Amino acid sequence: MEEEIELSRVAMHISRGCLIVPIQIELYDEIILRIQKDILERVKDTGVKGVIIDVSGVEIIDSFFAQAICDTARMTYMLGATTVLAGLKPEVAASLVDLDIDFRDIQTAMDIEAGFQRLEPLVRPKEEPEEIEEYEEIEEPEGEFDEDQEVQIGEDGEIEEEDNYKDEE
Amino acid sequence: MKNKEKNIKIHGEADIAEASFEGKLSAETAGFRQSEQYMIATVISELARNTFLYALRGEIRIKIIESNNKKGIEIVAQDEGFGIKDIGQAMKDNFSTSNGLGLGLPGVKRIMDEFVIETKAEVGTKITVRKWV
After folding, report:
1. In chain B, how many domains are there?
2. Distance from CA of B53 to the nearest CA of A (A)
3. Interface probe with A: pick from B53, B97, B99, most Cβ of A within 10 Å
4. Is A93 at the interface with chain B, CB within 8 A?
5. Range of the domain at B29
6. What is the DSSP letter of B121?
7. Predicted complex: ipTM over 0.85
8. Taking the model in full, what pTM does it have?
């Protein structure tokens, strides 16, 4: 419960398969680090493949903040999610260049919408390769695990698998 | 004309944000464009952060200056830390997002028009920067 309250301060939400993190506050290190932690927990809990950090409301990004964002992106990547930094203001970009900070490690986008477009191929992979994987998985376990519906279908072999294929198409 | 000097003691992380915010207000008063106001605020944030990270305590002084009918802003970051051992190293562009925090001083110098650093081992560091409108 306590975590929920903390999360609500940053008002993260999941939309179109991405975790959206709107950042409006500035420069309070403690908060930045907490957001970092929250993002990681949220990624782990939900298994999202994309994170969009929206900094369109941020006017000052110093080296600490930039570092925290880069670290977060790298950490989420290790958990299997790609981070896009969206909405950098022109003056912030200018300051970052002067300060010799860059975001080479992470993708950037003009705004959240552009961020979605960048992440779309990752968040919603093409269906065909997934089906092939499922097909292979179905064959091997032969209904040993009752929890998994798809495995149960596998008991009857080819016919059921074909049905499965049609459904997903 | 407000030439009152602002003096912000840096004792904690929240003070960094305060110094930065006060700097933005002063820059606005001095007549800087909005983009420059934010750059000045970023500079103060870097300076205050260095103070906090490397000396733990110190202060940021901000004042509006005037010379030859030109207005500007002067920011002094002073601490009572151990001093910077190798200024040459500190002024090198070695900040990289993958190598932890740099001092950010080369960037501060680039953004501002004037940059003076005085440091003495065991006494502390004083960095004075100015920017003209």
Report:
1. 1
2. 11
3. B97
4. no
5. 6-132
6. T
7. no
8. 0.72
